Amino acid sequence: MRTFGGIGGAGDLGDAFRTYEGRNIGEFWGKRFAGFTPEGKWTFFNKNGVAVPNAQINTSPFRDQTDLALIGNAIPKYYLSLGNTFTYKKFDLTIFLRSKLDFDVLNTVALSYGNKFGTQGNLLNSAFTKYAEINDTYMYSDYYLESGSFLKVDEVTLGYTFKFNDKAFRSLRVYAVGQNLALLTGYSGNDPDLIQDTGLGQEINGRSLGIDTRSPYPTTRQFVFGVNVGF
Amino acid sequence: MKNFKKLILSALITSPLLFNGCTKLDENIYSSLVTDNYYNNKNEVLSAVLRPYTHANAWATPSGQDNWWRPSELSGDQLAWPTKGRHGEDGGKWKRLHYHTWLVDDAPLNNAWSLMYGGMGFCNDPIENLEKRSLSQMGITQVEKDAYIAELKLFRAYHYLKLMDLFGNIPIVTQVGIPAKPETRPRAEVFAFIEKEIKDNIDKAPKLSKSMLGRMTQAGGYAMLVELYLNAEVWTGTARWDDCIAAANKLINNEAGGQNGPMALDPNITDQFKTTNDLSKEVIFAIAYEFRIANSQPSWTGEFFHFQQDRIYGGSRNGNNGIVMVPGNYNKYNNDDLRKSTWLLQGPQVRFDNGQPALASGGNEYSDQQIVFVDEIRRARANSTVSNMSEGEENSGVRFNKYKLGNNVAGNVNGNPVGIDLNYNCTDWNLYRLTWIYFAKAEAIMRKNGGAATAEAVQLINDCKKRAFTETTWPANQYTTASLTLDELLNERGREFVFEGFRRDDLIRFGKFHTASWWDHTPSAPFRQLFPIPLIQRTLNENLAQNPGY
C-alpha cells in the first residue's frame, strides 16, 4: 500500500489517495462522514458502521484493520467532446463541447475556507450557510468529496459571409468567437476542468490529481471578433 | 545470397563466443562510498563511529518526528498536543497517546520502532567492520579500536534500553542482517543482555571529558545502569536498589570523568539548558549541536514553539504551536520556584527586540493580538468552558522555555540592550544529567527504606532543588524526612525533569500510569504500560510476538 496526494492546509490531513495491490489507481481512501453532534463536532463511521469521533478512527494501512474506506476515484471514466459546424444560408456556426464524467474531487476550498472554526481569516459565504453547522477542526472525509463531472462549452464561432461579384474581392466573412462560454457542473468549488485528472503523486504547477487548489487562478472568458476577406 | 545470409547468422551467433574476453567485472565506484572502500584512515573510522549519534537526534530528542520521546512524554500527565482550532488534529494521533488508546498499527509507534532499530543498526555496522579489519588498514591503534568498539557497544545498549522501555519484549540483533527474522526475547532477557553489554564494555570505554562531548562514555554507561536498576522492579520483577545506588555513586563521586572538570551539580538551573550548556558540569550524555561549524541545530523548535515564537526570543526559528503543559501542572510549582518563571512561558509575551507586545499573525484565533499563553485549554475566544484535547485554541497552554535557543537579533529586555548570542542555535540536548542521578539514588534509598525518606535522600533532593530558590525563599521550600514522601518525590521529579522524556517511566514506576486521572485523561489498563509491537513489523517478521493485551 502506498499513499499519495498531500491534502495540505492546517491540521496535517495527510494524503488523500491509497493505492492497494490489485486495486484501481486514483482511489480516494478516507473517513466516511456520519454526521455532526449537537455541538457541531464531526463523527465518522468505523468499519463496523458505528459513528465515532476522529481520534477513534483507525487509519491503518491494513485493509482488515482500517476504518478508512474507498470513497471515490479522481480519474474520469468518460471523456467526451463534440465539434460541429452548422451552416444556414450565409451563416455558419461552430460549436465545440467538452466533458469529463464520473469522477470525484476533494473540495479543499470548502474544507479550508468553508469552516469558521479557529480562524479570523477570509471565509466563503458558505461557512455561514451550507457549512454553518461545523464547530470543529479541519477534517478530510467523503463529506468534502464531490462529483467533478462537467460539460463545458469551450468555443462557439458565429460567422456571416457576404459574397461579391468582383474578381478581385470575392467575399467578406465577419465572425465572432467566444471561448469558455459556459460550464455545467454540480461541483461547488473551483472550475473542475482545472483539477488534474492524471499524474498520481505528481504535483504539476501546484496542482495534483483530484485535489482542488486553495489559490486558483480563475479561468478567463475570451471573445475574438474577426473578418476574413476572400481575394 | 542464401549462403551470405547463413554467414551473417553464424557470425551473429558465434561472435559472443569469439569475443567473450571480458571476464574481469570489478568496477570502480565513483558515485558512492561502499563499505569495502571505507575505513581507510582514522577520519573515516571516526565518521562511521559517530554516525549513530547524528541519528539519535531524530529518535531520542523532541525532534519533530514520531520517535522515542513523543510517546514517552505525551502519554504522561504533564504534556499534551491538543487540537488548537484548525491546527493540530493531525489524524488524532496526539489524542490516542494522551488517552492511551493507541492502536497496534499506529503509524507513530511504527516510526519510533524503525528509527530506533535503524540507529541500533548504525552501531552494529561499524562494530562489525572495525572487528574484521586490520589496524594498519584503518590507521588506528589497538587502544583506539578497543575504545571505539566499547563506545559503540555501550551506545547500542542505550538503543536497546530505550527500545525495551517502550516495547518491552523485543528481538536482540548484534550483527547486520543476521538473523533475517529475529525472534522476540522476553523483557527480562533483554534487560540481562543490556546489563551484560554495559558491564563488559564500560571499563574499555573512555571516561567522559571535553573531547568526548556528545558521545557515549563510562559516564553514560553508569547512567544507563542507574536507569536499568531504578526500573528493574518494573522491567524484570526484581528490585535492584543497591545496584542502583552503587552505579549512581560512580557518577556522584566523579569516577567516570566529567565534561568540564570533575562532574558536579551545576550551581543554578540555567547552565544545563543555555546555549553554552556544553560547559555544564553536570552533563553526562548529550546530543551535541554546533550550528556555526557543522550546520547541525537543535530540532525541538517544531514541537514547542508558537508560529511566531521568533518575536519572543529574538531568533529566526518557529514551530507548529504544538506541545503544551497539561492544565494543573503549572501550579504544581510554587510561585517562588525559579523553575516556574525560567523554564516555562506563561502570560502576555513581549518582543525580544523592543519590548513591545509580541503579536500573533496568520489568521488564527488571536491574529494581530498579543500572544498570551494561559494555563488552560479551552476555546476562550468563543466563550467556551469545555476543556479537553479537542478544544484548544492558539493561546492554550503554558509553554516550553527550558532549553534556550539564544538570540540572533539584538534585544531590548526591560530597557537593557542585549547583544547577539554568538552561540545561537547550538544548544545541546541532555539525555542524562547528574541531577537525574541524584534523584534516582534518593528514590532507591527511599524505596529500600519502605518508601520513607532518610536524611541522605532528603539531602540529595535538597541539593538539587535548592538551586531553584533564593536564600530567602529556600527555607520554606526545602524538604525534610517528613515532607519528602514518595508521592512528593514524583511531583518533584515532574517539576525538575519536565520535557526531558522520563515522565512515562516515572508514572509506571510509581504505579500511576494506568491508574491515575489527569485533566481529561481517565485511567486506562495495565497492558498499556507497554506499547504494542507495530503490526507492520509483525507482518514483515512473523517471529515477533505481540505484547499481552493487544
Automatic annotation (TrEMBL), chain A:
Top-rank taxon: Bacteria
Designated name of the protein: SusC/RagA family TonB-linked outer membrane protein
Organism, as annotated: Pedobacter petrophilus
TrEMBL record, chain B:
Alphabetically ordered keywords of this record: Cell outer membrane, Membrane, Signal
Entry keyword annotation includes S-adenosyl-L-methionine: no
A Pfam match: SusD-like_3
Domain SusD-like N-terminal, first and last residues per copy: 93-230
Domain RagB/SusD: residue ranges: 281-550
Highest rank taxon of the organism: Bacteria
GO cellular component, one term: cell outer membrane
Location relative to the cell: Cell outer membrane
Record-stated family: Belongs to the SusD family.
Descriptive protein name: RagB/SusD family nutrient uptake outer membrane protein
Organism: Pedobacter petrophilus
Phylogenetic classification of the source organism: Bacteria, Pseudomonadati, Bacteroidota, Sphingobacteriia, Sphingobacteriales
